[in-house]
Design brief:
By secondary structure, this protein is an alpha/beta fold. The chain is built from 9 helices and 7 strands; from the N terminus they run E-H-E-H-E-H-E-H-E-H-H-E-H-H-H-E. The chain has a single domain, classed as 3-Layer(aba) Sandwich (Rossmann fold).
C-alpha cells in the first residue's frame, strides 16, 4: 500500500479534471496538498476539490493557492506557499494546461504562444522554483503531464502538440540533471480522458477519437491519477526519465 504521510505536494491546475483527481488521490494517501487554480473565477471549483478531500478518511492537509504558472513570479509564490505551510516540497505535479485548437493556416500568434507559455513554460517555472529545496532534501518526485498528442500529433493542434512534446524532452533532460540527488522526473501522457474539456467536444469528434483507442472507451481522470500516485511513491524509486502513456492503447 502506498503511504505518502509526511510528504507535501503541489498539483498545478488542480481545480478540476485530471488535476483534481490527482490532488484527491495524493491527499487520500496522506500527502499534504496545495490545490492550485489560475484565476478568481476558478476559486469555487478549487474549494469544491478541497471539500471533497476533507470528506476522505484521514487525508493530508490541504491549502488553496491562486497562481498563473506561466508567470515565473507566481509559480515561485505557489511553491513558496507549500514551503511556508508544510515546510517542504516533495512532490510536484505539473498538470496545468490549456489548448487553442485551430489549423496552423488560421492560427494567430497568441494562439501559438498561449499553450507554450502555460503547458511548457509553466512546467519550467514550477520545476525551477522547486529544485533547490528538493536538492537540499535529496528527495523529490516530479511528474509532468504531457499528452498522447505530443507523441502522435493531431491536425489542428500543432501548438498543443509542440508544448506537450516539449514536456517529454524537458523531463528526460531534467531527469539526467537531478538523478544524483535522488530526484526522479517522469512524464505521463494521457489519451482521450473524460473531462469537462472533452465533454464539450462535438460527438463526431469524440467518436473519431474513440475509433483510435483499442480499449474502445475514454479513460477516467482517476486512471491518470493512479499512475501519478505510483510515480510519486517509493515504489517508483528506480523509474526516471520515462513517459508513461495512459491512453487505452492509443498510439502504441
Amino acid at each position: 500500500m502506498i503511504d505518502l504521510s509526511g510528504k507535501s505536494a503541489v498539483v498545478t491546475g488542480s481545480s478540476r479534471g485530471i488535476g483534481a483527481a490527482i490532488a484527491k488521490e495524493l491527499a487520500a494517501k496522506g500527502a499534504n496538498v496545495v490545490i492550485n487554480h489560475s484565476s478568481k473565477n476558478s476559486r469555487s471549483k478549487a474549494e469544491e476539490v478541497a471539500e471533497s478531500i476533507a470528506d476522505l478518511t484521514d487525508p493530508g492537509k490541504v491549502i488553496i493557492k491562486q497562481a498563473d504558472v506561466s508567470k515565473l513570479k507566481e509559480a515561485q509564490d505557489l511553491i513558496n506557499s507549500c514551503l511556508h505551510e508544510f515546510e517542504s516540497i516533495d512532490i510536484l505535479v505539473n498538470n496545468a494546461g490549456i489548448n487553442r485548437d485551430t489549423l496552423l493556416l488560421r492560427m494567430k500568434e497568441e494562439d501559438w504562444q498561449a499553450p507554450i507559455a502555460v503547458n511548457l513554460g509553466g512546467t519550467f517555472n514550477c520545476c525551477k522554483a522547486s529544485l533547490r529545496t528538493m536538492m537540499k532534501q535529496r528527495w523529490g518526485r516530479i511528474i509532468n503531464l504531457s499528452s498522447i498528442i505530443g507523441m502522435i500529433g493531431n491536425a489542428g493542434q500543432t501548438n498543443y502538440a509542440a508544448s506537450k512534446a516539449g514536456i517529454i524532452g524537458f523531463s528526460k533532460s531534467l531527469a539526467r540533471e537531478v538523478a544524483a540527488r535522488n530526484i526522479t522526473v517522469n512524464a505521463v501522457a494521457p489519451g482521450f480522458i473524460t473531462t469537462a474539456m472533452t465533454e464539450e467536444m462535438p460527438e463526431k469528434v469524440k467518436e473519431k477519437l474513440l475509433e483510435k483507442v483499442p480499449l474502445s472507451r475514454a479513460g477516467m481522470p482517476e486512471e491518470v491519477a493512479n499512475a501519478v500516485l505510483f510515480l510519486a511513491s517509493e515504489k517508483a524509486s528506480y523509474i526516471t526519465g520515462e513517459t508513461i502513456k495512459i491512453a487505452g492503447g492509443m498510439g502504441m
